[in-house]
Write a structure and sequence with these properties.
The complex is a heterodimer of chains A (about 350) and B (about 350). Chain A contains 13 helices and 2 strands; from the N terminus they run ααααααββααααααα. With about 350 residues, chain A is mostly helical. In chain A, strands 1-2 form a two-stranded antiparallel sheet. The longest helix of chain A has about 30 residues. Chain B is an all-alpha fold and about 350 residues long. The C terminus of chain B is likely disordered. Classes of the chains: A mainly alpha (about 350), B mainly alpha (about 350).
Amino acid sequence: MATQTAATRRSTPSFRPPVAATAAVLVGALGLLGVLWQAFEAGFGNEGNVPVFILVTLNGLTLAGLYFISASGLTLIFGLLRVTNLAHGALFLLGGYVALTLVQDSGMSWAVAALVAMVATGGVGLVMHQLFLRWNQGQDLRQALITIAVSLILADQMLAYFGATPTAIVPPEFLAQPLPLGVYDLSYPTFRIAILVAAIVVGLLFWLVYQRTRVGMVVRAGVDDTQMTSALGVNVQLVFAGAFFVGSALAGLGGVFAGTSLSLAPGVDQSFLVSALVVVIVGGMGSLGGAALGALLLGLVDQYSSAYLPAEYANLSALLTFVLLAVILAVRPTGLFGKAS
Amino acid sequence: MTPPATPAPTSTRPHALARAWTLGTRATLALVLVVVALVPVLFSTFFTSQVGLTSLWLGIAAVSLTFLSGHGGMVSLAQTALFGIAGLTVAKLSAEAGWDPWAAALAGILAATAVGLLFGAVASGSQGIYFLIITLAFAQVTYFYFAAVPTFGAHEGINGIRPPDLIGDPVQHPARMYYFLLAVSLLVFLGLRYVSRTAFGLALQGVRDDPVRMAALGYSVRLHRTLGFTLAAPVAGAAGVLSAWSNTRMSAGSISLGVAILVLTAAVIGGLNRLEGAWVGALLYTLCDTYLRGWTDRFTTWLGVVFLVIVLVSPGGVVGVLGSVGAWIRRRLPGETPAPMVPEASALPLPVSSKGAV
């Protein structure tokens, strides 16, 4: 019987050449070569394309930093709770708006406003988790639907309170001046560099807490086996609540950074949610290193493709990031560093 | 051998109240169906075109998701992408290239099916949340493609799409369009119901419940999921064509992420377990969309609240709620024999489901 032979074939381990993976890597390498060729073909002089290349690369890196900050929260929540928090984008925008209101109307300093925004979004996330998600633990699709509903409500309420006009947060004064880079007379917005630094700090902190502290140990154990961790006397619900608070707060922090370097408007929540999802999925849900790599890939692909694609295809650059996602998922269904659940 | 004792006729005969209840529910259902059939006669042109047409094509779009989710366990956000591929192909071919509307519709649905096969083949390896996200990526790819490519009108879209002469002008005289949509809805409903009862449909439900066991039994899990997805694609495509005909226009905005979530909302509100829930959800959504917007500025908030309550309270949606209310009343009617005691699932021997162990 045909079905039987198919089953037997599947059960016998056999070497399958990774055709799709090789092709994907080749296409990626070709794309990078194309970018580098365009950047350096005219030499390294002031007349060449190197200055533009440096700026585009910095844009890609800072965008990657922005993606990483919000995606690290998403991946923490997913890794530990198996909740795909589709309200992450709404929390992101909420963080931005809270900071905007505090800086603009209350005259609070940027850093304090950012901290308050983090606590506020963390609180909203925590409430959402305790009220709606906690008793649906394990039903991942239902939880995804719940977070979609929450994000609909949050987004509409934000539209009501903050309006539809795109607005940006004023950056702190010491970061407001452009930073001279020292090459080719280039300067770059200091605040965007600060985003990159903040992303690295967030990543390092995460890594240190994960690897070096007891809390991190509990979280790692929870990621691997929640029931066993609970049986060993750890209050897993408390850890879950903490993870949801921190993850949501990171979404808010990302929103504050995005609101300062870009702008805040309705719809930003969806586009950043989708970006964060792409980052997290490309890297493998629950993997911090994967999120970093995914953010780098997405940020650079996004910026390089909009700068270096031939003009008639330039408006397809947004498409490319999703092609990247679809290709990676087709080759590795759980992302680059994802573990099979 | 003694002949088996025939039970006394009185014991199987339901009580008069129970019979009245059964008759009453059937009569209500029949009345609803008659009203649905007579919408163009009973209601204004505005209602027919605004609520009738919209809820029917939205229902067809939603039922492709309900089928995938209910029978295949695949909650897809890519249905609007297939919807848009068919709709924009029809728009391009009939409004700009001068094709016959029927031929354009066929081409559009075929295009949607082909893309559905491709999407399904790629996505069938992922499950649950990963499936949701990969289909979200497909939806975004399609949206950005149509928003960027001037051939399909980019953000402006394509206007002046004419339905076939048989249907006539859907804006001034929506009655024919309404009956056409009703007929297609019925066909889609019966077709999907038929498919779910075939060997393939049952195997698909087996794959939904326990992929590992089905694989062990010799079924190809990926093939079934791919085919299931491909089967839902022409349904979503047909909805796209019908939407293009009803609105006489189509643009990239018709398939944005917001619309994908809207279709999901309609399907969830109606109920993901029953095919007819798709149309119920679409009708409820369209009614709210048409009449509630005048009442409140915060329509989306209320929509979100309803969505949230439905997901929290009744995973079976409105149809599920109606079903359980009906069952609850039936149980309390005098003379009704109580349902036989069935042991709870947890009381069975340890379930050896390998769910999630893929």
